[in-house]
Amino acid sequence: xxxxxxxxxxxxxxxxxxxxxxxxxxxxxxxxxxxxxxxxxxxxxxxxxxxxxxxxxxxxxxxxxxxxxxxxxxxxxxxxxxxxxxxxxxxxxxxxxxxxxxxxxxxxxxxxxxxxxxxxxxxxxxxxxxxxxxxxxxxxxxxxxxxxxxxxxxxxxxxxxxxxxxxxxxxxxxxxxxxxxxxxxxxxxxxxxxxxxxxxxxxxxxxxxxxxxxxxxxxxxxxxxxxxxxxxxxxxxxxxxxxxxxxxxxxxxxxxxxxxxxxxxxxxxxxxxxxxxxxxxxxxxxxxxxxxxxxxxxxxxxxxxxxxxxxxxxxxxxxxxxxxxxxxxxxxxxxxxxxxxxxxxxxxxxxxxxxxxxxxxxxxxxxxxxxxxxxxxxxxxxxxxxxxxxxxxxxxxxxxxxxxxxxxxxxxxxxxxx
Length: 418
Hints:
4 helices
């Protein structure tokens, strides 16, 4: 069914409201069951209730009647009202866990809470979309029904183990920790593998969905900077493959700048032609050393042969500096729309520079080089990468792209504040 709701106008032809379809009917269904649960267990936390609903669920059905195996379609499965009130084990989490999770995302909470990697947040599912060779994921469970529980886990394309694989709870409310180690064997790169972790004790099963994706490379830095006319910068990358691991330098490309100015109620549009073979296109608004409190937003759309536009990127941060990067963009005509959101105190408009960088993969200004360029790696090996540039204009911003074997990369910015 379609639901009429408020939407983002830039992606809905300027409409403030639109009809959309989705899985919204699941929300009141689950919320009602959670309310029933809360009435029975008023002292349980939201995450404990969520765990109970998830770990007692069963597989949904495909159209042909077979059991669904797509975790991105069914999640933990169909909630079972007859089983949800008696979960054997629960994955609980509270305020400290959430604060640690935020710290793990790079959001400073100022609380001093230890960092929790996002994949280690204590929920009743396991997910990691950036596994380079192997990973270890931590969880803790609390017993509702005491007893001995044995772990079983299966994730196609991975060697998966649980330690300890047996948990013995002598009383209700006791909590124990365990680790799940996942090592890639044959799983295709950049594709999610689905599986389950199940704790079995007596006639009770506690099932958690597992969705993990192996990748070819993980970089310690998505972006690096060099200031001046020449220089170098280093960072590390971890390889997920055994064999040749080419690293390619593209750029540097000088910025093309155009002046602009918007009020909180006006917009400006810029047209950019992206040629075939472009490795990376960056569209940005720039206000040097912006601390004024001004706020503008950026949306980029691509025109097709019929003149229709499709949004390909949005940036709506709380400042006047917005950036959209497109890796291996489809060649053609792009429209960048700059919208005013708020002006600085005491002003009615915001002056800015719209700039674009088009990196075409050929040697350009700055002669970006990278070392090593053709290393051979073992899966799980970490190497140091150094990018170097020369002959730059210190008053001109530049951009380069260091590309890895899987098409991802690290941007190299030079004199970005100019």
